[in-house]
Amino acid sequence: MALASNKVVCITGASRGIGRGCALEFAKHGASGLVLHYFETDEEILSLKAEIETYNTRVVTVYGDISDPATSTKIVQSGVDTFGRIDVLVSNAGICPFHEFLSMPLEIYERTRKVNLDGSFYIVQAVANQMKNQTPQGGAIVAISSISAFFGGEFQCHYTPTKAAILSLMQSCAIALGKYDIRANAVLPGTIATDINKEDLSDSDKREYMIKRTALGRLGAPDDIAGPVVFLASDLAKYITGTSLLVDGGMGSNLQ
Ligand code: NAD
Ligand code: RM4
């Protein structure tokens, strides 16, 4: 089923990991246009663009640091200039520089908050204004929070609060934006093997521990997250707003 046909979808942090997985899934589900934001080298995003265009989905790419509000303005402008509207936002860009708490330099804390929370706020606000003002009005916002919104991590005292805040942002946005036919939901991935945790999971004991905690006996991959994101953004989910969907292979159900 083409869950995204005729939709213009904007994704932040799209060049790799979960963002890349989402971009490919939206293209497979018939999205007409993708606005792909990135903060890496051009090579990664250009290879993704080429792959996506094989699905007959048009692509515009936008570079920038999401912690700068001007980046969000630029992303929306590019989407509107190229496609005339934005139907879906996936707010995905984020960082997790694992660090011990007591010795954590404030720069690391502040950078994590600025990218994860401030960046999410800027892009959600910018895209929501576009969704409110376009004809027909409306759209769907999916923010990538985390299982870390519910559970702490010894080396994530700066990160987990940003993920709880993103969940809360979606709840308040659902209330604030429903009157404009804009839905806002959060997806909470468990442990997905990507660049963000490559170093952390290179410790084989830690990796085995994380795998064992899942019910399905494996870590997630980006496409495990992309399907639920496409669903929440689709018309099949038209009465779902303000909710959080945990996609963790059962990790959060395991007390041991
Ligand atoms: P990743 O490192 O592969 O992707 C992160 C993306 O964010 C990259 O595209 C990167 O360029 C972008 N980014 C980083 N800093 C940025 C900045 N200042 N401005 C703009 N873009 C920036 O990791 P991932 O796992 O794909 O992470 C994507 C999202 O998923 C993050 O928000 C992360 O917190 C969340 N998440 C990941 C996991 C996991 O286990 N991998 C679990 C829960 C939530
Ligand atoms: C997630 C969760 C994962 C971790 C990533 C970086 O929220 O804590 O286990 O690998 O963040």
TrEMBL record:
Pfam families: adh_short_C2
BP terms from Gene Ontology: fatty acid biosynthetic process; rhamnose catabolic process
InterPro entries, sorted: NAD(P)-bd_dom_sf, SDR_fam
Keywords for the protein's UniProt record, in alphabetical order: NADP, Oxidoreductase, Rhamnose metabolism
Record-annotated membrane-spanning stretches: none
GO molecular function term, any single one: oxidoreductase activity, acting on the CH-OH group of donors, NAD or NADP as acceptor
Entry keyword annotation includes Hydrolase: no
Family per record: Belongs to the short-chain dehydrogenases/reductases (SDR) family.
This protein's name: NAD(P)-binding protein
Organism of provenance: Armillaria gallica (Bulbous honey fungus)
